[in-house]
Amino acid sequence: MQPVGLLAARARGAAAALALAAALCGCGGSKDEFLGPRSRDACDQTWPVCDRVVGCIVGGQTYLTGRFPSEGRFMVRLAEPSRVTVGVFIEGLAGTGTQDAFIHWWEDGCVRRIRDAVSAEDFVSEVDKAGYFSRFADLTGSGDHLIEFSADAQATYYVKVDVVALRDQPQ
User: Fold this and answer.
1) Residue among 62, 107, 64, 63 nearest 82 (CA)
2) What is the pTM of this model?
3) pLDDT, tens only, 5-63
4) Chain CA centroid to CA 6, Å
5) How far apart are CA 68 and CA 45, in angstroms?
6) What digits encode the pLDDT tens for the residues 127-149?
7) Is residue 130 within 8 Å of 137, Cβ to Cβ?
8) Distances (CA, A) of 86 to 69, 162, 166
9) Going from the N-terminus, what domains does the chain have, and what CATH number goes with each?
10) Among residues 154, 42, 136, which one has the least CA distance to residue 82?
11) Is 170 helix (H, G, I), strand (E, B) or coil?
């Protein structure tokens, strides 16, 4: 019966080691969990929006990737007023940067901008705690909307968008 006790002790030890490893990694989730079944958009097209040209339209089925420090932009198409959530997953962080990280959501026709900015330290801190950085804005116009983002951290980023019609938001 001693081998059974030894196996149980080893199993408890392995479970404890796994729990410790999970605690040390920050448990923010993996890139695969963040992206889900989305496919990468090469963002190499030409789409006019406002007075600019973007390389891609990002929606619930796609994501884009690149390197910080940089500024990026893309377009979302809305059929009706919607909550647009932009999520940024980073990996390979080599430096937090010094400038604010931001996301700009533009109403169709760029008639109004919604800006959300955080310090470089808060950006990285949120990524460390949650596994990603995420913000949302309620856009009331239908049509094409420009979204811009920037951070000067040194890392690889993955950006996704989730769109939920405002009529489907809980009151």
Assistant:
1) 107
2) 0.81
3) 443 444 344 333 333 333 334 444 799 999 999 999 999 999 999 999 999 999 999 99
4) 45
5) 21
6) 999 999 999 999 999 999 999 99
7) no
8) 18, 7, 16
9) 29-168 (2.60.120.380)
10) 136
11) coil
